[in-house]
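Known limitations

Files may contain more than one protein. Parsers should not assume a single record per file. Below, a two-record file is shown to illustrate correct handling: read the sequence, read the token line, then continue until end of file.
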Amino acid sequence: MTEAAPTPLVEPRDGIPDVVITERRLVEAADALAAGTGPVAVDAERASGYRYGQAAYLVQLRREGAGSWLIDPAAVPDLSPVDEALRGVEWVLHAASQDLACLADVGMRPTRLFDTELGARLAGLAKVGLGSVVEELLGLTLAKEHSAVDWSTRPLPQDWLRYAALDVEVLVDLRDEIARLLEEQGKLEWAEQEFAALVAAPPAPARVDPWRRTSGTHKLRTRRQLAMLRELWNSRDALARQRDVSPGRVLPDAAMISAVTGNPRTLDELVVLPGFTGPAARRHGKRWLEALARGRHVAEDELPLQSLPSDAPPPPRAWPDRDADAAARLTFARAAIAELSERLAIPVENLMTPDTVRRVLWDPPSPDDLEDRLAVLRARPWQVELLAPILRDALGQLAKAPVTEEPEASDA
């Protein structure tokens, strides 16, 4: 029997709602959502790759009895009335960790949530993107052609608004299907612990030396080159922030690396390097040359370290040389966790983060302290229950050194 083709989801059931751009309409939205029933579907659209930062430029919500609402945070930046209306209501998001920070910036923080992407992972679905999960579980197809557009565009085109409204159209239905799967598999409580951890997670700390994330940094061999990159990155970041443009649009990472390795001293030397051949290179050329010059003149004792100090274990490839016993523990644990992952149909990284596993095996606690150590590392109770026995067994593994027989003593 041929499986039925999925049905395209092409139009919101209530039509495309008008975008909320006034405080009065925001209060109306909050009142309507408060009067609704059941979970609320929530999504946010950013202008990643276009604007500086990760601000939300559209927030979409849908709740039974309230319909769908599209809110423009650029016009009404404080969405706390909506947040108040939804206190205690379960929020349904897909890949919640991508949106929670930008929602918090406009005053929206869930007290309960259901992450359909994370739930799909725990349920063992092979593909967990929103479109794939909706197609597999609901038999519908979502158009994704506007997923990477510049959502800071004003006015927003109707096609984009249709796409945005459809993203929350069936999110609660999807939540119910995933919850059903998790319940059948005995994993719903595990998922609920994961969702609670997302709600309780503190804001991500500011990244130390964010310039080190520049793509291609591994090509720089000296601390002086790192100083030049740091100055160039800071100069680009300041200009991008001033213009509210994605830093990569001001100057690509590859161009910064080529400038550091090429070490130009004049504009003519700069504009022949990869990434600097366009008119913007001449317009901002003086700025980039000055940044490179500052990097050349950083005092020796102020040069950045080749790498930041870290309390993390060394990379696993170095374990056999650094600590053969730890390497044996890791090999044992990896095999056992992989078997558990296959048996439960849960990705290895969702059973427990690789960093947590490595920290426990590199610097092992006493057997009695294992569960406490895992809790300190923010492993959830369900993870501790499943993984602690494996890690305890791994901690008993020792590197097996080859045994050589002593030569028999000669009678001579």
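...continuing to the second record:
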Amino acid sequence: MKIYTRTGDKGETSVIGGRVAKDDVRVEAYGTIDELNGFVGQARSLMEDEKFADVREQLLEIQHELFDCGSDLAYVTLSDNNYKVNMEMAERLEGWIDSLESENPALERFILPGGSQLSSVLHVCRTICRRAERRTVTLARNSEVNPEVVIYLNRLSDYFFALARTANTRTGIADVEYVRGKKVFRN
């Protein structure tokens, strides 16, 4: 099988149910999710240390779920039986977030991306996830989409924030606090 098809040479691509321009909002939404998935893979590759075995497995599951998100968004028209992303996936993320946050020091100030290399990459994942969420919300304004994808992406960005902090905690590196503001979080 050849990897190239030449069917997109004129700026169009196939989606489930038709063809659209490669810069269509639908393609932009699931393309951003694909970009996120690449950075999640990079983050996993930085987790060779055994102290990250648990979250390495979580990230692998998330990579599969990101594919599910992209699949759900690739449908031009959906019915409930086509959906892969569901509320249980977001709820599971909440449990993971709570567990990660229990390891982290109390949050007093806003956090800047940084600290360890792994934490920095996870912050990149968080920001790309937020962009994927924005693109999906834009798509949902004018097209039928699985609403659980928006919820999942919203929760996933929180997961990446918590995990970025945990990456610093587990490696003994302090978070980089935004120091030009007052303490904004009360515990």
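Parsers that stop after the first record will miss the second one. For reference, the second record is described as follows. Residues 12-177 form a domain with the Hypothetical Protein Ta1238; Chain: A; fold (CATH 1.20.1200.10).
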